[in-house]
Amino acid sequence: MKVLISTEAHQNISEIYRYIEQDSLKYANETSKNIYSFIHDLEKSPYLGRYVPELQNKHYREIIYKSYRIIYSIAEKEKIIYIHFVIHGKRNLESFYKSYISKNNF
After folding, report:
1. Does pTM top 0.70 for this prediction?
2. Stretch (H or E) spanning 63
3. 91, pLDDT greater than 80
4. Are 51 and 59 in contact (CB under 8 A)?
5. For the chain, N or C: smaller number of CB within 10 Å?
6. Are 49 and 41 a contacting pair, CB within 8 Å?
7. pLDDT mean over 70-89
8. Would you say 79 and 1 are in contact if contact means Cβ atoms under 8 Å apart?
9. Quick check: 82 and 73 in contact, CB under 8 A?
10. Mean pLDDT of the chain
C-alpha cells in the first residue's frame, strides 16, 4: 500500500519538532524521524494500528509512537493509507477531530 501524508499531519510533525527543539535538537530530530518511520511501516502492515477508541467512526485507526498518536485511515480499493494528523496523547482527541473534520470538509 502507498502512504499519503496530509498537509495537516506534516504541520503537526513540524510543530512537535519545534516544541521539542526548544530543549533538545537531537531529540527533536530523533522524534520526527521516528514518527515518519512509524508512518512508513504502515506500507507493509496497514492494520498494525487499532481503532481509535474515542471515535464512533471505525474508519480511523491509530498507531502510537511514544506520546504521539498517528491517526490514519485505509482506502482498500485504492490501496492507500491516509495519514490525517499526529497529536500528543494528552490532547483531547474528540475536539481536535471535530475541528479537523470541519476544516477538511469531511
Report:
1. yes
2. strand 60-65
3. no
4. no
5. C
6. no
7. 93
8. yes
9. yes
10. 88
